[in-house]
Amino acid sequence: MRDSEIEQRVLKQLGSSPLTGCREVCVVARDGIVTLDGTVPSRRARLAIQRVVRAAGGVIAVVNNLQSKPQFAESSKEARAKPELGPTPAVVQAAAAGAMSTY
Known about the structure:
The protein has helices at about 5-15, 45-55, 75-80, 90-95; strands spanning about 25-30, 35-40, 60-70.
């Protein structure tokens, strides 16, 4: 099987698998060895992608260079626990006294 066919097969498998969440993954095949580069949201996704690639026809080995970078999303509970940022008391006092100017 040609490397270009392996790449197409791997990309098709990644696109159809709900486990991989294929996002920014670069797939390069050379002599049946598939190299994966890019960023995925978690270690779990990184390993899932590797399993899917290994199962694709024509793949002899996988070099997994994927980096997992979790997306930090604040939960609403965390957001509520943080104090609201506002002017410091000194700024409020200065504004009340008319000491601040606007441009």
